[in-house]
Design brief:
The structure is a homodimer. By secondary structure, chain A is mostly helical. Chain A contains six helices and two strands. The first copy, chain A, binds a DNA duplex through helix 2.
Chain lengths: 160, 160
DNA sequence: CTTGACCCTAAAGTTAGCTTTAACGTTAGG
DNA sequence: CCTAACGTTAAAGCTAACTTTAGGGTCAAG
C-alpha cells in the first residue's frame, strides 16, 4: 500500500510516517520504480504499536530500542524490564502530582481562611511565607509534568 | 543587590533571571550608571515564588497572568480560580496515568502468562491483539505527560 | 597595568516530536 | 492537454523554558 493509504489506516500523518523513517524508527521500505514507498500490511500494526507505546509513555528512543527487527521476535526480557521501569516512573510521577495537589489545595485554604478584615498585604505575606515553608520541606516536586500539555495531545491533525 | 547575588540567593541562574525579564515576567529593574542591574531584596521572594509556582505546574505564561504588579496586592479571585483549575488538571492527569499504568501492567501479565512452550510468534500476535483491543476501548490516554522528563527537572545548573 | 571576577547584549542552540513549506515529479480521469 | 490528487525531498519552523556563545565593558586587587 502507498503511504497515503497507510496514513489513513493507521491514523498517523504521512509526514509523521516519513519522519519515523528518517530517524530510523521504521526501516527503509521498498520503493516502486517511480520512487513511491510501498508498505506491507503489517506496517499498520507496527504504527499502531508505536502510537500505543507512546500513549503509554515511551519516548521514540525507547521504542526504537525495544522494537525487534521482526515483529514476531521480541526480546521478552528487555521488554518486560522496560515495562516495569515505566510503571515505576509513572508511580513516581503520581507521587509528585499528589504532592503538588496537596500543596495547591493547602494554599487555597490559606488564601480563603484570611482574617475577616481585608488586610491584603499582611495576608499576602502570611500566605507567601507559609507557601515557602511547605515547599522547602519538600523540594522534590513534580513541575515539568503538570505543565505543558494542552489537554489534547498533538495526536489530532490528519493530512490528506 | 547585583544579579549575581540574586542568582546565588534564589538558586536561579543569571541567564534565567535575565530571560524572565526579557519575556516580561519580571519588570525591568533599576540600573547602576554602568548598566548593572540592581535588585531590591524582595526580588528573592519573587523568584522563589515563580519557581514554586512552576513546581506546582504553572507555566510562565500562567504565572505572568497571575502575578500582581505589587506583591502585596493579589487578585484573590483570579488566583484561587487558577489554583482550582490547576488542581482539576492534575486530577485529569492522575486519571490518565492510572489508565496507562493499568494497561502496562496488564500487558506485562499477558507477556508473562504465555503458554509453556516457546511459541514466540503466536504469543507476540496474541499479546499485540489484546493490546490494541484494550487501548482502542480507551483512546484518551496520557502519553505526552509520562514521557519527557528525565526524573530530575532542568532545575539544577548553577552558573557563577 | 594586568588579571580575574563580575556585568552587559543579541543571537543562536537545545530537546522532542512532529508539521509546514517549497519546489518538483507522477498518475488517473475527463 | 489539463487538472486534481497523489507522491518525493530537504530544510525550516513550532513549543517551552532556558542555556550557550560571542564579543565586549567594569571593577577591585596587587
Amino acid at each position: 500500500m502507498t503511504i497515503g493509504e497507510l496514513a489513513r489506516r493507521s491514523g498517523l500523518t504521512q509526514s509523521r510516517i516519513r519522519f519515523y523513517e528518517s530517524i530510523g524508527l521504521l526501516k527503509t521500505v521498498e520503493r516502486r520504480p517511480n520512487g513511491y514507498r510501498i508498505y506491507p500490511p503489517e506496517a499498520v500494526v507496527l504504527l499502531d504499536l508505536i502510537a500505543t507505546a507512546q500513549t503509554a509513555g515511551f519516548s521514540l528512543d525507547e521504542i526504537r530500542a525495544l522494537l525487534p527487527g521482526d515483529l514476531d521476535h521480541w526480546d521478552h526480557e528487555a521488554l518486560v524490564g522496560a515495562l516495569r521501569r515505566k510503571v515505576a516512573e509513572i508511580e513516581a510521577l503520581e507521587a509528585r502530582l499528589r504532592q503538588s495537589k496537596t500543596q495547591i489545595m493547602a494554599l487555597i485554604g490559606e488564601i480563603e481562611a484570611r482574617p475577616g478584615d481585608i488586610d491584603c498585604a499582611a495576608n499576602a505575606r502570611r500566605v507567601l511565607s507559609r507557601m515557602f515553608d511547605e515547599v522547602k520541606k519538600n523540594p522534590t516536586l513534580a513541575a515539568d509534568d503538570v505543565r505543558r500539555r494542552g489537554t489534547a495531545g498533538r495526536r489530532s491533525a490528519r493530512t490528506g
